[in-house]
Write a structure and sequence with these properties.
The chain is of the alpha+beta class. The chain has 13 helices and 21 strands. The protein has a five-stranded antiparallel β-sheet. α5 packs across α6 and α6 crosses α10. It binds adenosine-5'-diphosphate and magnesium ion. The site of adenosine-5'-diphosphate (ADP) has 13 residues, from β15.
Length: about 425
């Protein structure tokens, strides 16, 4: 496993349940991951060291958590070394690495998405906005490359749009020379992830995540403050139908271009009055969606990931899900998302209940062997229950026993769920 977040911890929990009883190795991991896997302190961007570790340890499968190493070509390097990898090659990961490429593929595959133009100058940007939006605001302006969730600007008027275009195209805030300007859509946002074996997409359960730091979707964006799964509006039957219209045409279009996409194709969807539209694709498991999705999976995740890493391997495979719902709430440290704090001792971790999973993100062990904060998002707590209402009661009860100075959390995760 490559990565060090709660997403990776949740994937490792699910792999540990496999009937094949895999030996688990994680680079670099964190204090919680060390309980389920042997951790090796190699950062996710040290590609030669990661490949070398995989070769010397003779690992059977590498699962790549974050997008950075995928966009940088880790899957290609592993392929070179004849090591099976769950995660797309650099060419496939461009779906996430370049919003312009993502739009081009969606257009070619006739996948429903917001109207858009790719521009390289402020003047062209303003002209494109006038055409797409017919003079109406807000509008959406997106940096082309990876921007850690900070590259999308919703501009309320022409003045803000011009400022955003200047920030991206003249000041080069995100080292990108292209910008996607996009039609503003309205609706509920849902994530639908699919396992892909190069030729076929098989949906996971739907999920919704909460991006803002404060209750009621207030304050700045974060890496994600909570999630729940499934979304009532998208049951497994609806997920299959959406995958046929959204993920499968993208896989087909990539294949036409000689790209076999192995891994998770994550569609960020908006349920608009005009039907479902794709906001973006990511090339990996979502965080914190994964923490809510995987505890409900009854199929053997290891078998699924191996199958997806082999071309055509998912053929005939049906996923089995627990009928329970899952709710995940993230605990963040003081100052997040502008900053974060480290070294605050976390109490209450030992009392975790059997119907609750605690997954670590920014945690470390101090010199006294205590678990302390070591980053913005510290850990997440997932609870299962017969419905989301029950699961959220259990999740918050468990959370209230875990404490550290400056602890931040949202109290409204899964309070309202998307029904239609
Ligand atoms: N066309 C759009 N209309 C309205 N809101 C949008 C649109 N595109 C993106 N957004 C909002 O901006 C957020 C981030 O955009 P997204 O394309 O997912 O980029 P990233 O996750 O890389 O920052 C979305 O979750 C959504 O809330
Ligand atoms: Mg997004």
């Amino acid at each position: 496993m490559v990565g060090n977040g709660a997403r990776e911890h949740a994937i490792l929990h699910a792999l540990a349940r496999s009937s094949h009883q895999p030996e688990l190795l994680c680079a670099p991991g964190n204090a919680g991951i060390a309980d389920v896997a042997r951790v090796v302190p190699i950062p996710v961007d040290d590609m030669p060291a990661l490949v070398n570790l995989a070769v010397t340890e003779q690992v059977d499968l590498v699962v790549v958590g974050p997008e950075g190493p995928l966009v940088a070509g880790l899957a290609d390097e592993l392929q070179e070394a004849s090591i099976l990898c769950f995660g797309p090659t650099k060419a496939g990961a461009e779906l996430e690495g370049s919003k312009a490429f993502c739009k081009e593929i969606m257009e070619a595959a006739e996948v429903p998405t917001a109207a858009y133009r790719v521009v390289t100058t402020v003047e062209d940007g303003l002209r494109a906005i006038a055409q797409i939006q017919h003079g109406r605001y807000p509008t959406v302006i997106k940096a082309d490359g990876l921007a850690a969730g900070k590259g999308v600007i919703i501009a309320a008027d022409e003045h803000e749009a011009k400022a955003a275009l200047e920030t991206l195209l003249i000041e080069h805030r995100f080292a990108t020379s292209q910008v996607v300007v996009e039609e503003y859509l309205v609706g509920a946002e849902v994530s639908l992830l699919a396992l892909c074996d190069g030729v076929r997409a098989v949906p996971l359960a739907s999920a919704q995540d909460y991006k803002r730091i404060f209750d009621g979707d207030g304050g700045p964006n974060t890496g994600g403050m909570g999630s729940y799964s499934p979304v009532p509006a998208i049951d497994q039957q609806a997920a299959v139908a959406l995958t046929a219209r959204i993920h499968q045409p993208v896989l087909d279009e990539l294949k036409r271009r000689g790209i076999l996409f192995h891994g998770v194709l994550y569609a960020g969807l908006m349920l608009t009055a005009d039907g479902v539209k794709v906001l973006e694709f990511n090339a990996r498991f979502g965080d914190p969606e994964t923490q809510a999705i995987l505890p409900r999976l009854k199929s053997d995740l290891l078998e699924l990931l191996v199958a997806a890493s082999t071309t055509g391997g998912l053929d005939g495979i049906e996923l089995e899900w627990d009928s329970d719902s899952a709710v995940t709430v993230v605990l963040a440290s003081a100052g997040y998302p502008e900053s974060s704090s480290a070294g605050d001792v976390i109490s209450g971790l030992d009392g975790a209940r059997s119907d609750v999973a605690v997954t670590h993100a920014g945690t470390a062990l101090n010199d006294d062997g205590e678990t302390v904060t070591a980053g913005g998002r510290v850990l997440s707590v997932t609870a299962l229950g017969p419905d989301t209402a029950a699961a959220r009661v259990t999740a918050y009860a468990a959370l209230d026993t875990i404490d550290f100075p400056g602890r931040q959390l949202r109290r409204d995760i899964a309070e309202k769920v998307v029904h239609t």
